[in-house]
Each structure stands twice: as C-alpha cells, then as structure tokens.
Design brief:
With 279 residues, this protein is of the alpha/beta class. It is 43% helix and 14% strand. The protein has a five-stranded parallel beta sheet, sandwiched between helices. It is elongated, with a radius of gyration of 23 Å.
Amino acid sequence: MGPYTFTGTSTYVLDNELSKIVNASIALEMPLLIKGEPGTGKTLLAHAIAENLGMPLIILNVKSSMKAIEALYQYDTLTRLNDSRFGDSSRNVSNIEDYIKMGKIGQSFFSDKKSVLLIDEIDKADTDFQDDLLDVLDQMSFDIIEIDKTVRAKNRPIIIITSNAKKDLSDPFLGRCVFHHIAFPDPEMMGKIVRAHYPDLDRYISEACIEAFYRLRNIRGIEKKPATRELINWIRILLMDKSFDPKHLARNNVPYLGVLFKKSEDYAVLQKQLGGLPR
C-alpha cells in the first residue's frame, strides 16, 4: 500500500478493519479521525503507530480555550520585553524570530524525521479551532505573521485525531479526514488484549476476570464504566495477591473494586446490586 504499513505492536491488538483504515489514511496522507468512548484505545493507537513505525510521537492535548495559533507557534513578547529592558540575553532583541517558539503542530512540521502527530480530544475545542486547522493540515503550511514567513512541513506527519464525541465536529473538518469508530471490545477481543499483556496468564483466571469485568461494567446505573486499562491494572493487582481465588469472582466476591470504579456514586450502585462490597 505504501512505504509505511502499520501492523500493531505486542500490546496493541488490531482488528482487521482498524488495520485497514489506519493504513488507508497513511497511504492517502489524510488525517485519521478516531471516535469512541473513553478507554477504547484511541490515544494509545497513536503511541502504537509511532512505536511500530519507529517514528517520534508529538502530542497536542487540546484544551477548551485553545486557539489554533497556539498549536502552530507562540510569539514570546514577554521574554523579548525583558531582554530589551535588561540586555543580558544571548538573543538578538531586534530579531523577532529568536522569540518564536513552535507549538506541537509546528514541531511536527519542523521535524527532520517523519513523525506521528496526535491531536487528542479535538471535540474539547470550538469549531473555530477546527476550521482554522483545515488549511494548515491540508496544505501542510502556515504563516508566522510577525516575521512574514511561511512554514512548510519538511516531512508530512501521520496525523491521528481523537474525539470522545462530546461535540459534533464541523462538516468541512470531517470532509478532510478518514474516519473510524472504535467500539468497546467484546469479550473475545478483550481476551486477545489480556493475552497480549499477560501471555502466560492461566486461561481460567483470564476468563473469570473478563466475565466478572463485563458483569460489573453492565450493571445498570454505573456512570463511569471501567475501561480496558482498568481491567489490565485490576488483573495485575489480583495476580499480586497470593490469596486471590478466581472462583470467588462468580459469587460476586470481587476484591480491589477501587481499581475498576473511580466514582463514589458507582460504589453506591454496586453496594446495592451486590449486597455489600467485599473488603
């Protein structure tokens, strides 16, 4: 398909459809927009692509108040003012370029090596942020107004954009992306993920933990359902406990619930459903 083919990593398990869409976005040189509920591996996908392809990973964590220009570059006027007042800097105060600092997108454009650029949780920002990035990501260039300079990407980064689907993204933005929705893993896929992290884990223990995990996750009224990372950490602490018996899980004797559930309201729901929480 192209010079770069993503095949997953030892701990990131790919289904066939996700593999195809990642490699299609790389071949088309289009951003890949990944949606899905928290904990489905959206952010980890970018880490896995960078690891698998041997590329640096640059992460832009989008904030609600962020403006697109902050992701491109910042002009440090305060430092320039201080340098002009005190005159003890190695920088040339008359050279504004000395006070231009690249943002995360700018860093990916300046990288001497092709990189993976993760734009994480873009739905936190407003539509102006999205629209302002459209031409930048399409043309792989942006202008630094203060020095009348156009920055062009040395190497087009592989762009992964994640969204928790809290807000709708604009149609023009969606039109520039390849899209994939990562569904929460079913028990069979979760078994593969668990085996990737714990290849020597006894199958009976694995199946007992996964069964209990989905049973608890699907209790009505749970606000923050545990995700894959909680399951992996829960199994880790269970394996460290010499007194752990997987047979107890079927009788709702579930230890270390604080690893799975993080809200006191969910504890109240579990207490009601399970008839008291295990110590």
